[in-house]
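Let's practice the habit of predicting before peeking. Look at the sequence and jot down your guess about where helices and strands might fall. Then scroll down.
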Amino acid sequence: MAIEGEELAKACVKAAVDIQAENIRVWDMRGVSNLTDFMIVCSGSSIPHLRAVIRDVAGMVEKEHKVKPVNSEGKVDSKWVVLDYIDVMVHVMDDEMREFYGLEELWAEAKEMEWEGTGQSAGGQRKSNFTH
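Done guessing? Here is the structure:
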C-alpha cells in the first residue's frame, strides 16, 4: 500500500530533521486548500545545505517508501525548491526567500502540526513525530 497524507508528511519531516534542515514547520491544509493536504517548509543555511536537504528528503522518502515527487519546481540557485508529492508539498528555502515570500502568513488559516523535531529526547535522539 502506498504511503500518503500524514504518514508521507512524517517521512518528509524525518528526512529533513536527519539532514539538519532548519526551522521546519508543517501545516495541515485539509479544508483550507485544494492544492495539497500537508505543507512543509524548511530552510537551509547555504546553497550546499539546500542541495543536501532536497537530495536527502527526496532520496530517503523514495528509498524507504518507494515514493518520488510527482514534480519538482525551482532550482537550488534560486534558493527555493518545491518537492510536490500531491498529498504533501515540501518547500526548501533559504531564510531570505522565506522571509520575503512569507508563506507562513499565507497559511495562517491552516492548523500548524506540532512535532517533536526541535529538541532532544531524554536519550539525546532528535525526534520527528507529529503530536496530537
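How did you do? The two ends are 24 Å apart (CA to CA).
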